[in-house]
Design brief:
With 364 residues, the protein is α+β, with helices and mostly antiparallel strands. The chain has 6 helices and 17 strands.
């Protein structure tokens, strides 16, 4: 996600994302009551192709219209969902700050590890009012990996400190990897492509599983614990949220729609990568998190990114480019795309941030 904000002379706010400057909201915007679509994907793996296509049509329509939707009957066991919430709470409640800082991302060569709350009372809008732990791709947790015996670059609490934690987190990671690939096949079908047309994007995905904790309103600031408006740079995001309503999605009319928790569902949103591949047909939609409840909120987003293949090229599908709708984005290798995206999202103090748009500027 990107979080560089600016205010235009007319009062509108914009945020810099991988797809250029995007309007955040109008000065008169208000919370809308519109509900995001809920899609039953139980037939998404049905042996009957026509049934799969029917589900694919629904998810693609949602990807075009809102870029956000719920999925039900997704195949992830309730027990697995309950366990990942339990493990998330264990990490943030049972470990001391000193113990959590042993996994501080500043010590990691990648962008994994622990991200503490960063509170600046003088600049609440610039504060990071949540804490999280990021885990990258784990071959040992990937049902499709050829090298399942290999572990990733993640740091895990010792087994005697949080017994069973690593095993359960990897188990959940396996489920959402499998679900992400199912969704990718549905997107391909819905675009009238061969069902496995996008498989090359996900052989060894640059993915991040984030366990996040949003406290209630913190001392020293009147701001709710939050994440500012942004889009996700990956292919798609699968979000598991608890019962505290906090996620808000920006509608195409400039209104914030609350994505209220619905038991038994995940929230899925389109990332910048899919927006690029479809030449803007799919919507990579602005969203934010605002926990105004004064109660702790926990969420588990899974960011499913492109394979870390340095030479694979990300560019708009030929079927999405026409004389009336010419290519909007510059092609680039997945390696370059991952590097520039991570630089903007997880910049570190020693890193110079270069925000370049990959949007092709209009001529004339």
């Amino acid at each position: 996600m990107a979080d560089i904000l600016r205010t235009r002379p007319d009062g509108y706010q914009e945020v810099k994302t991988g797809l250029g400057w995007r309007k955040v909201l109008s000065p008169t915007s208000s919370e809308a009551t519109t509900q995001l679509p809920v899609i039953d994907i139980s037939n998404g793996s049905h042996p009957d192709l026509e049934r799969r296509k029917a589900v694919a049509k629904d998810v693609c329509n949602a990807a075009i219209k809102t870029g956000f939707f719920y999925i039900s009957n997704h195949g992830v066991p309730d027990s697995t969902v309950g366990t990942i919430f339990d493990e998330t709470k264990r990490f943030f409640r049972e470990l001391t700050l000193e113990e959590k800082m042993e996994f501080d991302t500043e010590k990691h060569e990648h962008y994994y590890g622990y991200y503490p709350i960063k509170l600046d009372p003088k600049q609440p809008a610039g504060s990071k009012l949540n804490e999280s732990i990021n885990y990258g791709y784990e071959p040992s947790a990937d049902p499709n990996a050829a090298d399942q015996q290999n572990n990733g670059d993640n740091w895990w609490p010792l087994e005697d400190r949080l017994p069973g934690y690593e095993t359960e987190v990897k188990s959940y990671m396996s489920e959402v990897l499998r679900l992400s690939r199912r969704l990718l096949r549905l997107f391909a079908l819905g675009l009238d492509l061969e069902e496995h047309a996008f498989d090359y994007l996900a052989t060894r995905p640059y993915s991040i599983l984030k366990l996040a904790h949003y406290p209630g309103t913190l001392p020293g600031t009147e701001e709710p614990s939050s994440i500012r408006p942004h889009t996700d740079y990956e292919i798609l995001t699968i979000l598991l949220q608890d019962n505290i309503p906090s996620l808000e999605v920006l509608s195409n009319t400039g209104q914030w729609i609350q994505a209220k928790p619905i038991p038994g569902t995940f929230v899925v949103n389109i990332g910048d990568t899919l927006a690029m591949l479809t030449n803007g047909l799919f919507s990579s939609t602005m969203h934010r998190v605002r926990n105004t409840s004064q109660r702790a909120r926990y969420s588990v987003p899974f960011f499913f990114g492109v394979s870390a293949n340095q030479e694979a090229v990300i560019k708009a599908l030929d079927t999405c480019v026409t004389p009336e709708n010419p290519a909007k984005f510059q092609p680039m290798t997945s390696g370059d795309y991952i590097r520039r995206s991570l630089q903007g999202v997880y910049s570190k103090p020693h890193t110079e941030i270069v925000y370049e748009t990959i949007e092709i500027q209009a001529q004339g």
